[in-house]
Write a structure and sequence with these properties.
five-stranded mixed β-sheet; four-stranded parallel β-sheet; 58% helix; globular; alpha/beta; 661 residues
């Protein structure tokens, strides 16, 4: 039984991966489909503003541009840019093959080669990749470019001819059969039967294989011929999901009922259908509601002969109205309302008279297990406990420039994690907020930058702090790691991706700590023990002036220090502020240096008292080692007291001895 279940899961995952690959060729080019749809809506002879000259773009776009874009995208997925180029070349053969007189129908119309492009692009790239592997590493130095260019050109030339003569008849046969099948369903008012397949497929994440792999190419072919296609609406109709969510608002219970209104808004206006999948999984009987609503919508769309001019992606009511054909507004509106009503009518008694726990957290977890990754949308409506959080292996601190605040915060938390005994399990790095990627389990960011960090890292746990040096949130993170690691067998922790860290020169002081700091970045001439400032701006000017006089920066860098402070405070806690420039000001840095000012009276730093002002200029990442040591110094009360009591610059340098070593 277990083996059978595993085989079914493997088959489902394989289909999902295939669907994802198909959609990965279409989705990046949806904007081009929409552009073509707008052109057809406005400027064809039957459009709102007929224009003979502009209309000349409509045919070439659907015949050449869109298939070539799809082929290039598919090829690039397999073999980077070279794969994209060779895929586009080979696809040109099947495009021109379908333009030959013998393949043009009685209506003078040839099918756009979207399916041909989805086959030619990745297939040609894969074959070319295998071919190149035969001489990889064997080409004499100096001849690489010659071999690369001629091999691609010769393969593309041969592949284009092969696709013209070999693939063209196959693709036309497939398109003819698919077109006849669709025409049969539409002419006999049976298209509504497809909802029995499409609606369950959506919930189990197989919709991409159906929608973008089959429906969009067929719909575009139909739209090019008739100006619209009902096939665009088969999956995009938000009515079935809306009806289910409305039923939860009335008859649901617990967190499911409480979150249903927000989910309904995201689903209907945002077009993120994924948001209602966990609600269906809580009560599998609700698949009947989704199917019934879908059938009602498709039936009305077919009877009223409505359609869209181009894909509606995402499936928002706004996107649907933006692409609807000029004669279809009423029909589409009635279909959406009817599918919502039917779905609600079926879902309401199911929720009212059947037993269920309405455990949204469990349903979300089940959905993410099927999907194979965390859902940022559905997960936002659940309340997962620490045990259900992703296992924390990689932590990133993010600040505006990735040079100062984040490096020190990362050092503080790294030390806490090491002291807790998890230094070999959890890697802590730092990055500029604009360079974040969704490959971390936990992101720590200043509260002022939280909204910029979340879109780039939707799969991560987000922790906001207002104090990088002594935030109580660090202890919460350590405790969460402790809970996750307790009771687990000893395993080898994954090694941090040092290559990625190295790509961002300010990405990780974990890497830079192993490098030499080069020259001393803290010197007697950049230390002031009896400083006085009446404002934060004056303190920044003084710290910047020391860097300028040391020859480390130009005056423009000091200006950027003020600009940086306007975006987010550089106050670290424990009386420390570390003003530094923006990421764009790196050109004004001549060399790494740090200035140290101890004020006789604290200055107000955004509502916090700052006594120690440490100006930072990092030219090559060597300052990150210094920041790590500063974090250790200011993280301990006894060393902060030593800094307060120091009488000479030599005493300061002695305290910072590890910095210069």
């Amino acid at each position: 039984m277990a083996e059978t279940k595993q085989q079914k899961g493997g088959a489902r995952v394989a289909v999902q991966k295939f669907g994802t690959f198909l959609s990965s060729m279409i989705m990046p080019n949806i904007g081009a489909f929409i552009a073509w749809g707008i052109l057809t809506a406005l400027f064809i002879p039957d459009g709102f503003f007929p224009n003979e000259k502009i209309n000349t773009m409509v045919g070439p776009m659907v015949t050449y541009l869109l298939p070539i874009l799809i082929a290039f995208t598919g090829g690039k997925l397999v073999h980077e840019v070279r794969g994209g180029v060779v895929g586009a070349i080979v696809t040109m053969g099947v495009i021109m093959g379908t333009s030959a007189p013998e393949w043009i129908g009685e209506d003078g119309h040839s099918s756009p080669m979207f399916l041909g492009a989805m086959i030619c692009g990745p297939l040609a790239a894969w074959l070319f990749k295998k071919l190149e592997s035969l001489w990889a590493g064997k080409v004499r130095p100096g001849f690489e470019m010659l071999v690369d260019n001629f091999s691609l050109g010769i393969f593309g030339f041969a592949g284009a001819i092969a696709s013209m003569y070999l693939l063209t008849p196959v693709m036309n046969f497939i398109m003819d059969i698919a077109g006849r099948a669709v025409e049969f369903l539409i002419s006999n008012n049976l298209l509504w039967l497809t909802s029995a397949l499409i609606e369950p497929a959506k919930v189990f994440f197989l919709n991409n294989a159906i929608n973008h792999g089959v429906l969009t190419p067929l719909a575009t072919d139909q739209s090019a011929e008739t100006g619209k296609s009902v096939l665009y609406l088969l999956e995009a109709n938000p009515g079935p999901g809306l009806g289910i969510l409305l039923a939860f608002m009335v008859f649901g219970a617990g967190s499911a009922r409480a979150t249903a209104p927000g989910a309904a808004l995201i689903h209907f206006f945002g077009g993120i259908h994924e948001i209602y999948f966990p609600y269906v999984l809580m009560r599998p009987q609700l698949l009947l509601a989704a199917i019934g609503g879908g059938m009602a919508g498709v039936a009305i769309n077919t009877i009223m002969d409505v359609g869209l001019r181009s894909p509606a992606a995402p499936g928002s009511i706004i996107a649907i109205y933006g692409t609807v054909a000029s004669d279809s507004y009423l029909g589409v509106t009635i279909a959406v309302l009817a599918s919502t009503a039917v779905s609600f009518a079926i879902a309401a008694p199911i929720l009212k008279f059947t037993k269920g726990t309405d455990d949204l957290d469990k349903a979300t977890a089940d959905m993410e297990a099927m999907k194979g990754k965390k859902s940022s949308v559905a997960g936002a409506l659940s309340s997962q406990s620490a045990e259900e959080s992703p296992e924390i292996r990689n932590v990133v601190f993010a600040c505006d420039a990735g040079m100062g605040s984040s490096a020190m915060g990362a050092s503080v938390l790294r030390n806490k994690i090491k002291e807790a005994g998890f230094g070999d399990v959890v890697t802590v790095t730092n990055s500029a907020v604009n360079n974040l990627k969704d490959n971390y389990e936990l992101v720590v960011v200043h509260e002022d930058l939280a909204e910029r960090a979340k879109p780039a890292t939707p799969s991560a746990i987000h922790v906001t702090v207002d104090n990088f040096m002594a935030s109580p949130r660090y202890d919460e993170v350590v405790e969460l790691i402790r809970e996750q690691q307790s009771g687990e067998s000893s395993t080898t922790a994954p090694i941090a991706d040092e290559q990625n860290a190295a790509e961002d020169p300010a990405a990780s002081d974990a890497v830079s700590e192993n490098a030499s700091a080069g020259t001393d970045v803290l010197r007697p001439e950049t230390i002031v023990l009896d400083g006085h400032a009446t404002s934060r701006e004056e303190a920044i000017d003084q710290a910047g002036a020391l860097l300028v006089s040391a020859g480390a920066v130009e005056q423009a860098y000091v200006d950027s220090m003020h600009e940086r402070e306007k975006s987010v405070s550089t106050f670290m806690g424990n009386g420390l502020a570390i003003p530094h420039g923006t990421n764009e000001a790196k050109e004004s840095i001549k060399g790494s240096a740090i200035s140290f000012i101890r004020l006789d009276e604290p200055v107000d730093w955004g509502g916090k008292p700052a006594t120690f002002i440490v100006g930072i200029a990092g030219a090559d990442g060597s300052h990150l080692k210094t920041l790590s040591k500063i974090a250790k110094i200011f993280g301990k009360a006894d060393t902060v007291e030593q800094l307060e009591q120091a009488k000479t610059k030599d005493e300061i340098l002695e305290i910072f001895e590890k910095v210069n070593k």
